[in-house]
Amino acid sequence: MLHVISYQIADSIDVKAFRAAYREGIYHYDADELFYKMGEESFVYIFKYGVVCFLNCDEARTDEFLKKIAPYCRNVFQLKLSEEFEVETNAREYKIGYNKIEIVKPDIEVLRLIMLNVSQSVALDYFLEQTNLLQAETDSHTLRLEQKGRLDISGRNLKMYIGKTLNLKNRIAENLYIFDSPPETWEDENLNRIDLGLKRTFDLQERFRDIREGLEIIKENLELFKDLLQYRNSTFLEWIIIILVFLEVLNLLIDKLFKI
Known about the structure:
Blueprint: E1 2-13, H1 15-21, E2 26-29, E3 33-39, E4 42-47, E5 51-55, H2 59-69, E6 73-88, E7 95-96, E8 100-102, H3 108-148, H4 155-174, H5 184-187, H6 189-201, H7 204-259
Parallel strand pairs: 6-8
Antiparallel strand pairs: 1-5, 1-6, 2-3, 3-4, 4-5, 7-8
Helix pairs in contact: 3-4, 3-6, 3-7, 4-7
């Protein structure tokens, strides 16, 4: 039985710089990911979106590797999200269960595909967590709007909130490729079948759709907040103009009274 565990350790990882520093054991790499063979049926998979996945690595080796990669991470998390999965080898046929897959033989491409899907799952957990935090903040503003009839947020804070939302949407858009099937599955029917089965097991497409819909709801609320803030600012400016005009008229009246 092989054990897979994937961690979301940071917002992002500089895979290019890490590859330049640590070349030994590299089996596969591109601009977005690094795949290392650490030993017999022991692998590490690194992704630019902040995920590191281990297969058949003991705790000491895992901790050592995470410390090694930390300097190449942006915004390292104190609490890491994780996803675990079991791989049973030498089965009679391929079979995917809730938290385990049975494979006929430990082919390296099959193992890499399993690690990829586990890593996609933990990345979705992270993006969903961030979306839920934004949604909770949005709900607090809409609740105050319902209870008090006004929006209790300054223009600066609203701009920061909009920036936070757009930043999350952009990061998800940049990493959309992680939910696509790798090129290897297009040419290998067996890999394609395993990939589709794993995607169904982890509900990758459904969870991604939930995140996208959540961000759309937040975007609609932000548009409303922006319109309300613009209305509030325009009303404030109108009152300033009215007061200035009133003061000007009052000043003219006072001048006339004193001349009389």
